[in-house]
Amino acid sequence: MSELSRRDFLKLARDGFLYLSGALALGGLLRFLDHDPNPAAKTEFDLGPASNYPLNSRTILSDPPAVLLHTESGFSAFSLVCTHLGCSLGNDSVGFSCLCHGSRFDADGTVTHGPADKPLRYLRVEVMDEGNLKLFTA
Amino acid sequence: MKKTLTPASGLLLLTLLFVWWWNSRLPKAVELTPTLTGQAEYCLTCHADVPEISPSHPTATFGCVTCHGGERLALDADLAHSTMRGGANPSDLSVVEQSCGGTSCHSGSEADDRHHIQRVMTSIQSTYAGAIANIRYTFGAQTDLNAYSGITTLTDEQTQTGIASLAAFKAAGDDHPFIQKFGENCLTCHINATPLEDENYTRHTGCAACHSTAQHTFATAIPYTQCNTCHNRGNYDLRTMTFVERTDQPTKRIDDYYQPIAQFTQCEYTLDCVDCHTRTEVMGNGDIHANKKDIQYTQCKTCHGTPTEQPLTKKLTDPNDIAFTLSFLNPVGDLKLGDMILITEKGEPLWNTRVLSDGTYELFGKATSQYFTFNPVMGSGCTQSGDDQSSAYCHECHAVER
Amino acid sequence: MRPSFFHHLHPPTIPAAQARWRHTLAAGGIAIFLMLILGVTGILEMFYYVPNPEEAALSVQAITYHVPFGGFIRNLHYWAAQLLLIVSAIHLLRVVFTAAYGQPRQFNYLLGLGLFVLAILLDFTGYILRWDMDICWPLTTGTNLLKTIPLIGDFLFRITVGGGEACSTALLRFYTWHIFGLTIIVFILGFWHAFRVRRDGGIAVPPPQLRVVSARISRNELVRREALAIFVVGIILILMASLLPAPIAPAMTGKPGITEEARAPWFFLWVQQMLKWGDPFIFGVLIPLGVLILLVLIPYIFPKPADSDIGRWFPKSNRFAQIVVGGIGLIVITLTLLSFVP
Fold this sequence. Notes:
Chain A is α+β, with helices and mostly antiparallel strands.
């Protein structure tokens, strides 16, 4: 092992201390910036009485953007948030389309035209004790 | 100078390590977002061990700040507690309107029977108006027994009793010395005052005086021991105008608890006070009264009737009847639609009672769930006149030997 | 190595006598360092501070208690600001007591005074941004002082506060003054002030022929001394920020009741004390302005210091200026202490 002079050792120590201090400061800065001060977004939505959505109905909801279906097997829903980059879908003659980048979906949520490549997400719907419907987006 | 930079940078590193370490010692914030407010609170970071206060005030719905006030984001005790209302008791009458009242809680108009706070503030238990009037009249500070003063200043614009306001009672310099001593010694027994320190009779002020039966607990099932934190606490010595607190810790109601000179029937030492005394009697009806006898009206005949009249009853046909609400909060008797219950002369439901098919009655103790059956006076061997409901008459036969 | 701006700021050698710690007390340099800290921590706070009246105090609480190292950054910002005022005052005293304001440094002296006033205004506007219960009365009285100025009072009030009742309306405008309006001026004047130090020949020294000591220190040595000062002040600041919390109070909801004495921020206690004596325009505007004008005039109307005295502590030739400035300092301190006497 080559001799390390006292001066070089001190210089090495000083530089080491400074780099470590810099790392600690940078780490602290990153932790400081990585904080979400916002209240958690709503994930449960009360849709009102189940009787408002009769059998065989398809209802387009706006908050959250979704389609609520009432079939013989019960209530279901899928999201109208485009699976590409999150814009809200609009209606078209055969299903839904996205004005942002041109994705298109059929009435059941399957992709018919990209750039989206995933079908619309199914959301859980439950009937509550009081007869109201609750939609879960989580 | 060249050599000092190395230790200086070493010290800097140490200081930054200290900062990281100091930061890691901070308590991890525990968040609660009550569904009623949608605003995150962090009281549970330090107060996680506070019990749920009642089934009808779940913490997940109300949180802490709605009732207590305080700074919801603060993790430092001094700041967090600085805007709390009423210290540890937000139901203290000085802050009860903001804590228990608010726009959507226990406040509202007389029309929808939601003026709880206004009723309590004007009740005899809060104002002490009768006692104050009596003392002032006796010792010459006023020339009649009308109520002019109470514990705090009050106004009642919709008064039905003619008493539109009370001034705050303060013994003036020229008042009789006994009025002054009364002010100093005898005013701890109303729900506006801080009670004297005594472990046997610790109680809160405001709504909590009656409804808080244990630490951070609400109840409508209020046992007689709660009432005895003011009543039956000792004796007044009128010769010296002092209150002499009792020093014993009684356990047997009829033998030890009550005054030795008084008479009691079985229900008076077996039932709890709330089993007979109604909400209007205890919490007032919204008007300022000058005397206890103007508001207290439960009598033996309320439940038992008289030799010539059956007690008043009511069949519960409306599912929104307040009797069902009260029974829901304390379901001792499992009240059902169609049940027939006893009611008072003013129509207040005795919801823990029921008329049985054979013409007798049953009662469930509100605080104990004890079950009692009892008979009406009519058709019994009672020889009293039903008009005389003074205490001596029923006690003549029914008082218990002590 | 090609010379950079850094080399321009640090000449190859500077006179050793004036580069000693006990000559300058490093006060000017430390002031620059503190301003840098304030800029960085201030910008970091901007990621979380919400400048609207309903959320401002709550966002301060969020920074203090919930953002990782948020309390530390806030405390750093607060203590750096208060230390800046003290260090600036020490720097001003040093400049006067070492007769360092004479030509060609007279203009730089004015720039420095301007920076001092700006630092005080930045401290006040920053204090207001807390928007908690304690700031309403100082904000009201402080801004109402502007209205007492004849002819332009209301105009000045509208420019600084935006009009209306200060405790309802001042937040957004004070925020903009604090993060941008005053800061950009400090930036420009600060750079100019540092540049002028260099252009006027560095730290004040007697001209070469009158110099007693001719030793000089190298540029590297100067940088080392600066680094040491930064380390020392930095470590002290970090410890203060960790162990001494910045003031915090519940949000301002309506006008606070007067239950206890409303105190001005510490650097204005001397003005608050004077305002107890009479007419607000005289005691709150004219006298402080008079103090400032007196300080401004020192290089111009007071006896000029002799060339041989420049850069020496407590020289004879500007004794009068030293007494006046020292006296002002003592009076301000006395008035501040008096405000604590009930």
